[in-house]
Amino acid sequence: MEGYKCAKCGRVYSIKKAICPECTSREFITVDMGEECILLTYTELWVTPTGVSEKPLRLGIVEFPNGGRAFGQIITESPAIGIKLRPIWKQLKEEDGKALWGFAFQDQRKEPK
Ligand SMILES: [Zn+2]
Question: How crowded is residue 32: how many other Cβ atoms within 10 Å of its Cβ?
Answer without folding.
Answer: 10
